[in-house]
Design a protein that fits this description.
Number of strands: 6
Strand order of the largest sheet: 1-2-3-6-5-4
CATH superfamily of the largest domain: predicted glycosyltransferase like domains
CATH class of the largest domain: Mainly Beta
Strand content: 25-35%
Largest sheet: 6 strands, antiparallel, barrel
CATH architecture of the largest domain: Beta Barrel
CATH topology of the largest domain: Thrombin, subunit H
Amino acid sequence: MDERENIENREFARARVSLPVQYNIFDLEEYNKLREKRKADPRVCRHNLLAITFPPTPISRREETDYDIRERLEIINNKLDYLIGLIIGGVPKKEYKYRDVVVELSGAGLRIMTCRPISPVMYLDICLIVPFFPYFIDDIYGQVKRVISVQEGDSPEEASEVAVEFIEIEDSVREKLIQLTFEKQRELLRSRREGK
């Protein structure tokens, strides 16, 4: 087995996990537009909550309304969330519309359990929340390859398992995901050996 086959086998090793995931959904046209924007400016879609500032001139007490105060408190809250996130291990670089759970992970893709309809031709911009620093791994792009309907227990709501193949991912990020996959597989083997 040559080195290339070994690397490919590492990518396809998978493990059952339970990780939070945040993502945005795009169709092919939107995905291509986003790709072009990222090629033109690699920093596109990145926001910095510290860049939000108060109005340069103070508002007099008579003009200040509850809305103004609420708006300022929200800005302070966002800045505090951002700083706390940096202290505990980073924050996502952009905002994500959807949140679900990853049920299976590999270096080549993942499976998400969701109750929202996602079609197999869609593209996802993914942010994984992982148990090591940095806690947010984002700028992963994937294509939905398969959607399987699943009935969860007594729940009247039908869920789906969405299989996603990574189509844009940095090699260092892929290596971290492969490392996490192997760690989860070792934990599973240990627990089986111990009879748990």
